[in-house]
Amino acid sequence: MSAQNVLFDVPGPKARARYRIYTAFTVLAAIAGLAVLYLGFNRTLGEGAPSILSSEAWAPSPTGQWTANKWLPFIDPATWTDYVIPGLQNTLTAALLASVLAIVFGLVFGIGRMSDHWWIRVPSSAVVEFFRGIPLLMLIFFTMALPIAINQLLPVFGQPPMTPGTFQVSALAAVVTGLTLYNGSVLAEVFRAGIKAVPKGQSEAAYSVGMNKTQTMWLILIPQAVTSMMPAIVAQLVVLLKDSALGYIIAFPELLRSFTLIATRHSNVIPAAIVCAIIYIIINVSLSRVAIWLERRNAQRGKQSAKVGAGPGVAPEPTPDAAVPGAVPDQGQETRNKPTEPS
Questions:
Q1: Which of 100, 113, 252, 323 falls 20 to 30 Å from 311 in CA-CA distance?
Q2: pLDDT of residue 38
């Protein structure tokens, strides 16, 4: 019995017929959904619209979203220099700053959760669980409202309120802070799981050669944990990049807000959304490709290290059956290997 038969029963004729019917229905439903979307945004669906069987219904309507005039703004260089490129720069700036800070946050609190000292372990666990349980949008709002909260608390401690403009939180700082706290808490669990997944023999070997716990953590465990958890880390960074679009709520001029301004100005919501989605997809796919390259590079380095470890200066261990020059033969083994004579 093959492994395929164990994991999956080969469908019979009736089952294959059912699968064909299900596939046909699924394809037809997908085509129907796309047709409804096209006709709806083309303004040729509904009361007063031409028949869907006529060519007029499928031709781009001047009042719809598929006409060529709706795509012309993206050919204009001013659209890119005034809206798209500045928004993309702000998005990448916020994502880059938040990624670095989130990785540092995750490492510190992920290691803190594994500390032997309760006065480090308990607060670290509380911080991670607290920020993991709060929605990212609320963290951004709380950061923006921090000056107001401080102004209300100052009279409680007998201090006069601050003058307007003394302490303000910019939209970039609020977005970066929210992304750092939320995604850093998630990465803390990723790092902790990666360190726990390293074989226990690695740390025992490090202790046996005289390393202390700090050296073992930073030189032995963390590098292996980061390598093994690289897909999860990159996936969370992709989520962080997409979550930067929430800065739109607090008027942060990121990529989504720039395309919203383009759609408002030229009344081309669907073309603007499509171009914006393509840019996000390109960035996220590029980030995933970088992660795949890093994984392959680390794997190749590991293979090269293994080859170096078994280089020409290292002699293979002799097997029990191999004859060792100068060694005294085992008399018992000779007796065991000697054929018995027939009686």
A1: 323
A2: 92
